[in-house]
Amino acid sequence: MRWELLMRYRLIEIVALWEGRLTTKHLCNSFGIARQQASKDINAYLRDIAPGNLVYDGKLKGYKPAACFTPKVTSGLADEYLHALASTKDFAHTFSQLDLGFAHTEMLTPPLRQVNPDILRALVQAARDGKKIDMGYVSLTSPDEESRIIAPHTLVCTPLRWHVRAYCEKNREFRDFVLSRFRGINGIEGDAEMTKEQDERWNTTIDIILVPDSRLTDYQKAIIAEDYNMQHGKRVFSVRSALVPYAVQALNLDLAKIEARPEAQQIMVANLDEVKRHAF
């Protein structure tokens, strides 16, 4: 199946399932196709992918999910629709016609950190080609820009920033470098001797085991367990060791202290000692 056709089929399922009304206009506006092509896509979806999944409703003037609707090219989970909304809101400044729930959705995003396009391109190419690169970098612990020879291997997106995971020649270890703090490109320094395969923390995965705060009542614990889709009173997140600090931050957890009010903390880390070893 062609990628662009799969994307249109996925939009058909997402809009129909979560918004309850699908029209050719959704496809026309989102993909820039003619109404005739959109109609063909819907008919092809019903014929080849999921016969009987949608029914036409004259009052709605569009298709709605049938009682027997079963997702075929999507997961059918709410997160899928919510992530689609977040993505389309994020793209809205460029693709203004994307048609997916804009009128009823608001997305709060943190302020973007400025990243120089030339620096990003240089890091991406060095990582792709397995090269070391000499970059100008500033940090909160050093008052002046300094040269850093690094071997980048992966760009990482956290809820608050982008950084690059790289081996640092100065510190002789793998570290995280914030993209917005690079100041210049001094040049390629040859092939990287230290690669992703040697990054032990990157290649080590640990489980963060979340449980409701033990100080909550049983009723409150049940609510928190439902919020986090816990099974048997816990939720397990598998995370690369190098990303544990950012996972903890995203979960709004402070491993060094306990909130005075359990209603404010809500969740705890069951394997706290193990997670602490990877978080600092």
Give your account of this protein's structure.
The protein is built from nine helices and ten strands. It has helices at residues 3-19, 24-31, 35-49, 78-91, 117-129, 218-227, 244-250, 262-265, 272-279; strands at residues 54-57, 62-65, 131-139, 142-157, 162-168, 173-178, 182-191, 205-212, 235-240, 267-269. Helix 2 (24-31) crosses helix 3 (35-49). The model is unreliable at 89-98 (pLDDT under 50).
Average of pLDDT? 88
Strand order of the biggest β-sheet: 6-5-4-3-7
Tell me the structural class: alpha+beta
Alpha carbon gyration radius: 24 Å
Short note summarizing the structure:
This protein is an alpha+beta fold and 280 residues long.
List keywords for this structure.
single chain, 280 residues, five-stranded antiparallel beta sheet, three-stranded antiparallel beta sheet, CapW_CTD, WYL_dom, CapW-like, WYL domain-containing protein
Give the SSE layout.
Elements: H1 3-19, H2 24-31, H3 35-49, E1 54-57, E2 62-65, H4 78-91, H5 117-129, E3 131-139, E4 142-157, E5 162-168, E6 173-178, E7 182-191, E8 205-212, H6 218-227, E9 235-240, H7 244-250, H8 262-265, E10 267-269, H9 272-279
Antiparallel strand pairs: 1-2, 3-4, 3-7, 4-5, 5-6, 8-9, 8-10
